[in-house]
Each structure stands twice: as structure tokens, then as C-alpha cells.
UniProtKB/TrEMBL annotation:
Pfam families for this protein: LAGLIDADG_3 (PF14528)
Organism in which the protein naturally occurs: Candidatus Harrisonbacteria bacterium RIFCSPHIGHO2_02_FULL_42_16
GO MF term (any one): endonuclease activity
Domain DOD-type homing endonuclease positions: 22-170
Protein name (Swiss-Prot/TrEMBL): DOD-type homing endonuclease domain-containing protein
Gene3D superfamilies noted in UniProt: Homing endonucleases
Taxonomic superkingdom: Bacteria
Amino acid sequence: MPIFKTKNENLFKKWTPEMAYVLGFFAADGNLTLGKRGNHYIEFTSCDKDIIEKIRAILGSDHKISERKSKKENHKNSFRIQIGSKIMFCDLSKLGFTPNKSKKLVYPEIPQQCFQHFVRGYFDGDGHVTTGIYKKKDRINKNRLIFSGFTSGTKKFLEQLKRNLTKYHIVRGGTLYYSRGYRLNFSISDSLGLYKFLYKSLDNNLYLIRKRKVFEKYLNAVVA
């Protein structure tokens, strides 16, 4: 007899902050898969097990989280959850997602009140933030720098994301270029604007802790 697993098959039918976060993460690190027997699967993958656990809870799922060991040295293992659901598969398809979506990712119509959560989900999947110290040759003092941004296999997706971040006055600039995929990068002022936007007024813990800590470590160092 088949083993039935629980899941919230209504999740992607209505926009909520939790749905928007999961959808954003799915846009970055999720996939739709059709099995050989016509089975419909949705899956999420990350090197951070804690975020997969949080997503599993929102999905109302009791599915097992599997671990894949990296074949490369100094690379983290990855964690994956796969859920069989034709309903959820179809709902994600209606939102514009397709199997093997990396180079044909469609930017969904996102309600403004859910935009923050969608972007934070996408950032936790395909976003980056780094800090460093820079010293000009003719100066004694060192400057602390922070850079952030997003990556995607689809240029149009990042172009629309940049337009909306600018439209809502979250960033003012940003550089979009190609380097093993498309990259949208922000310098110091826009990175701080992105930080305030991503984490403001949150009433849940739906974010990747290690990425938030990079922003806050920079801010603490600047204040000090």
C-alpha cells in the first residue's frame, strides 16, 4: 500500500507572507519534476538544513529531509525535501513556474504587501552578501565595505526584480551583468537599504540566520 504523507495543498492558492517567502525560495532553489509514471513533484534544496525545516513546516509536511553529500572538497552537503502533489505542481505552474526553470524563470505578479517576503525568500536561496576592508594607497584609514545582490539564470527575472526594488525606493542603483549566470549587485548604500527592507517588522523567523548576521556584523563594526 502507498504511504500517504501530509501537506498543505492550499498553500500556493492564496498570497500570504509565508506563501510569498516559500515561493521566493522556490524561485531560487526549487524545482518541478515529472516522474516516469506521470507523478508530479515539487522539491526544495539548500545547504542550510534549518531553512528546509522551516519550509517543511509551512508546507504542513511530514516528508523526510534527505541529505546529499558533496562530491567536491570544501563544499557543504545539501538537504532536500520532495513532495508529491499534482495540486501544488499545478498551482506553481499557474504562477509561471516550469520544470527545469533556471534559464526561463518567470517573474510572478506579486502583491506589494508580499513583495518583502518573496524577495527575502529569493535572497535566502540565490542572494549573497559579503563584507571586506579597503584601503586606498594615499590614505591611512581603512574603509569597511559591504556588497550584496542576487543571481539567476534568467536575465529578465533580475531586470524585473531590479525595477521593483527601485520602484519601491529600496535601492537606487545596482549593476546587472553576466558572469556564469546573471548577477545583480549592490554597493554599500543600496546593500543597507536592502537589509532594512528584508528584515523590517518581521513577526516570524523566516530568514536564513547566517546571511542576516553578515549585515549586522557590518553594521556593528561601523558603529563601533
